[in-house]
Predict the 3D structure of the following.
Amino acid sequence: NIGNCYFRMEDLGRAILFYRRAEQYTPNDPNLRQNLAYARSKRADRIDIPERRRVLETVFFFHYDVGQRPRALVFSGAFVLFWVLLTVRLSRHSAWTAWGAGLSALVAVLMASSLLVEHHRLQTVHPGVVVSPEAVARKGDGTSYEPAFTEPLHAGTEFDLLESREGWYSVVLADGRTCWLPENAVERVR
């Protein structure tokens, strides 16, 4: 609701910020996803995601499109099924128990890997959003450094924090470009 309020007040940066914060609590909410996608479409800055990342998001759709809780449930079910099928295989040496155990092991490994990657990302990656109407990205941590880009970044531009120094954040954008942004022009998602 806070994101919707900021969006209606035409504060696109804070709208995206609060939608991203809400994602932590309700990651699979279709209304939240739709609102976030719509707000992102209204941003002034068009930062394209590299083709490699798009391919990964397509191949590993379950990691990006399915929430943490459903993935944990699928992992648990596949793990239990694996051991049940191995137990059945001890008394019946049929091909279907071997195939079933192998398939359930594969699903369990994929889901466990996805959960571990997400846990690692939550611990190491610190996302943020530009909330100032315009923020001049610099090549260093001060106004004496020249601008990193020909145009300033605008409200709603998302980034991942690399480093923090007095009043400045070193960030990486979705397309891999890095720059320094003033701390008062951005907010961290978490």
Q: What stands out?
A: The mean pLDDT is 89.
